Automatic annotation (TrEMBL):
SUPFAM superfamilies: CO dehydrogenase molybdoprotein N-domain-like (SSF54665), Molybdenum cofactor-binding domain (SSF56003). It comes from Pseudorhodoferax soli. Transmembrane segments: none annotated. It comes from the Bacteria. This is Xanthine dehydrogenase YagR molybdenum-binding subunit. Keywords: Molybdenum, Oxidoreductase. InterPro entries: Ald_Oxase/Xan_DH_a/b (IPR000674), Ald_Oxase/Xan_DH_a/b_sf (IPR036856), Ald_Oxase/xanthine_DH-like (IPR016208), AldOxase/xan_DH_MoCoBD1 (IPR008274), AldOxase/xan_DH_MoCoBD2 (IPR046867), AldOxase/xan_DH_Mopterin-bd_sf (IPR037165). Residues 17-119 form the Aldehyde oxidase/xanthine dehydrogenase a/b hammerhead domain. GO terms for molecular function: iron ion binding; oxidoreductase activity.
Length: 721
């Protein structure tokens, strides 16, 4: 167990004592409670909601459905709220508000539904003819070609060609989605745990056709997100806001755990055809990676699953493609290393097969195929620490001394080892930050991004404290409110990379203002000094070249008794001169029970190179979280649709398996020092990096233990027996 000395979370005491108010807990007088009416069928049309039997029920206040929602302006992410068409089982058909939650639920259950039903598509295999090339969030083209992969495969010394399948997964943050909303005249306040307060504000303002200034969205604490607290939740939130407007009372809606299985996104199912070609020395001569994945009939979403194969390794001939198939199932969304996790499962499993066929050590095979630049974007790397990750993790793991395949055991367990590479691209969004110092030299940092539990309060507070040479306990951080300066979406491992340069910019501005005050003030020991020569450290402002100094608190109390504020901003440039990724190498040891088919991860050693680490304690914790999620994807998580009804089977946390403490191995995680001067503040982002790679490492270790190649996730008992 690694103990890191970096600061503990600023908000830790608030959270462990229950004083941190999550948005669902926002108190409001006279609040109504909401419950959703959901479709029992997977495809058809809502002909009507017969509210007559419900209007006289205890507590009933109002109902909102597509008919009432015609009052909202159309908006593509919200299409469902204004439609009578039914696209998937569980789709909300209406929202009832009542005096208590129990009354709202009773009313929702009692509404007779008039439906017309049509045959539903409940599996990708039923609708392959609808396959089309998706838009990959506008970030990547859906297909790519470099060189001639077909010709290179035909001429290759070795071809490894397989199909890989990955299951639907759900995110399942501890805190379900919720909203508490209220109108004050023509202004609405929306308390909701969301990864995107500013996007939420834009869509609410558009839907209700009011200026953005009349919408305030608040999301101060969140019990996790993992990609499902983005826009997918907005349709049902909009109905709650409409119900609040119609009744003139605050409304509260909280999703149930079962509703998290179909209303807020999922990791899409994939079927991946991958072919790798090698020369006799183990150098990749060809990659062909074709991905087929699920999307819904009411929206387009696809992960960028094959994009990793375009650039992770040096290979002259690469073809990739994505297709999606529409089914009457929930719409997918980004989830924990979207695309990269399923994509590297295929790529890194195939690399292991190639290593075996070529009799080359799996680490050595990857080293031989290291890409010294981004061949896909035709740019240099900003930095690429992959080779150092292999070397460090292999050493820590004891890779060189591992037993021969199939030879290790421990009691009833057959023991095997495996490894894989991990990678995640660096993303950034524009960010603005405001800092205010008061007469007691206490600093307030404000930014309208949101912390979904990863520790942004602390990371931002640390940077600000460092920027002024003061202690963390002098700093307060406010996040998660659209009244604050606009910050990035929380996701894609981009928040710290986005805000760090903005905070550093704001602190430079604040230091410059304070320095000007000091050198211009006859009462200061620094009077007449060169403002650019002043240093802020240890609570002092001092001359860099001389001995003069005074305390920051004295300077502020004397020269800025009203306090002083400064602002900072950072915007990613349109065209990046280099390609930036975080990298990792993950090594695992598994035990496989050959009689029961049980697979357990016994040991996990990983090394990551992902730029500057602001807080090693929190970063370590994020890697543990990411790797644990990866174990879930590899061994546990699987959402099944009943093919006859289109309904989710086992929509609860007893049936949807996730790794528990007993499933977690000892983690040995090394964070390599990486100085990347090409990136603003040297930050790359780490959240997703731990979530990819480990799936293939586990499958490769299972093969090492029992000689079975498992090419689908999760790995099931029957796959290893
Ligand atoms: Mo993330 S999967 O963008 O929360």
């Amino acid at each position: 167990m690694t103990v890191h000395q970096s600061p503990v979370r600023l908000e830790a005491a608030l959270k462990v004592t229950g004083r941190a108010v999550y948005e669902a807990e926002t108190p409001m007088a006279g609040m109504l409670h909401a419950a959703l009416i959901q479709s029992p069928i997977a495809k058809g049309r809502l002909l009507g909601l017969d509210m007559e039997p419900v209007r006289g029920m205890p507590g009933f206040a109002d109902v909102v459905s597509h008919a009432e929602a015609q009052a909202l302006a159309p908006s593509p992410p919200l299409a469902l709220v204004r439609e009578s068409a039914i696209h998937f089982a569980g789709q909300p058909l209406g929202l009832v508000v009542a005096e208590t939650l129990q009354e709202a639920e009773a009313c929702a259950r009692a509404v007779p539904l008039e439906l017309s039903s049509e045959p539903a598509v409940t599996a990708m295999s039923q609708a392959l003819d609808t396959a089309f090339a998706p838009d990959l969030a506008g970030r990547y083209p859906p297909s790519s070609q470099r060189g001639d992969a077909a010709a290179a495969l035909a001429a290759a010394h070795l071809v490894v060609r397989n199909r890989y399948d990955t299951a639907v997964n759900n995110h399942h943050p501890m805190e379900p989605h919720s909203v508490v909303c209220a109108w004050e005249g023509d202004r609405v306040v929306v308390h909701t745990g969301t990864q995107a307060i500013f996007l939420t504000r834009r869509i609410v303002a558009h839907s209700f056709q009011i200026p953005m200034e009349q919408v305030r969205v608040v999301s101060r604490f969140m019990g996790g997100g993992f990609g499902c607290k983005g826009p997918l939740w907005l349709p049902w939130l909009m109905w709650a806001i409409l119900a609040s407007q119609r009744t003139g009372r605050p409304v509260r809606l909280e999703l149930t755990r079962a509703q998290l299985f179909n209303l807020v996104g999922r990791r899409q199912e994939t079927v991946q055809d991958l072919a790798l070609g090698f020369d006799a020395d183990g150098r990749l001569t060809a990659i062909d990676h074709q991905v087929l994945a699920q999307t819904a009939t009411h929206g387009d979403y696809s992960d960028a699953t094959a994009t990793t194969a375009r650039s992770l390794y040096g290979c002259a001939n690469v073809t990739t493609g994505h297709l999606v198939v529409r089914t009457n199932e929930p719409l997918p969304a980004p989830m924990r290393a979207p695309g990269v996790a399923p994509g590297t499962f295929a790529l890194e499993s195939a690399m292991d097969e190639a290593a075996e066929a070529l009799s080359i050590d799996p680490v050595e095979l990857r080293v031989r195929n290291y890409a010294d630049r981004d061949l896909d974007a035709d740019k240099p790397w900003s930095s690429n620490g992959l080779l150092a990750c292999y070397a460090t993790a292999a050493e820590q793991f004891g890779w060189a001394g591992r037993p021969a395949p199939g030879k290790a055991s421990d009691g009833r367990w057959r023991v095997g080892v495996g490894m894989a590479s991990s990678v995640y691209p660096v993303h950034r969004q524009p960010c603005r930050v405001k800092v205010l110092i008061d007469a007691d030299a206490r600093l307030l940092v404000q930014c309208g991004t949101q912390d979904f539990g990863q520790g942004l309060y602390t990371a931002m507070g640390q940077l600000a404290a460092d920027g002024l040479g003061i202690d963390m306990d002098q700093v307060r951080v406010e996040l998660g409110d659209t009244d604050l300066p606009e910050g990035p979406f929380t996701g894609g491992s981009m928040v710290t990379a986005s805000f760090a340069p903005a905070v550093e910019d704001a602190m430079a501005d604040l230091r410059a203002r304070l320095a000007e005050l000091a050198v211009a003030d006859e009462a200061s020991p620094l009077a007449g000094a060169d403002a650019s020569d002043l240093i802020f450290a240890g609570g002092l402002v001092r001359s860099g070249s001389g001995n003069a100094a005074e305390s920051l608190a004295d300077l502020v109390a004397r020269c800025a008794p009203e306090g002083l504020e400064a602002e900072g901003a950072a915007t990613p440039p349109e065209a990046q001169p280099s390609s930036a990724n975080g990298y990792g190498a993950v090594f695992v040891e598994v035990g496989v029970d050959p009689d029961l088919g049980e697979v357990r991860v016994r040991r996990c050693v990983a090394a990551f190179a992902a730029g500057r680490i602001l807080n090693a304690r929190m970063a370590h914790s994020q890697y543990v979280g990411g790797l644990t999620g990866g174990i879930g994807m590899a061994l546990h998580e699987h959402v099944d649709t009943d093919k006859a009804t289109g309904r989710i089977v086992g929509d609860n946390l007893a049936d949807y398996l996730i790794p528990t403490h007993a499933d977690m191995p000892e983690f040995d995680i090394t964070m390599l020092d990486e100085d990347d001067p090409l990136l603003p503040s040297g930050i790359k982002g780490i959240g997703m990096l731990g979530s990819a790679g480990i799936q293939a490492a586990i499958a490769n270790a299972v093969h090492d233990a029992v000689g079975r190649r498992v090419r689908r996730l999760p790995i099931r008992i029957e796959d290893v027996l």
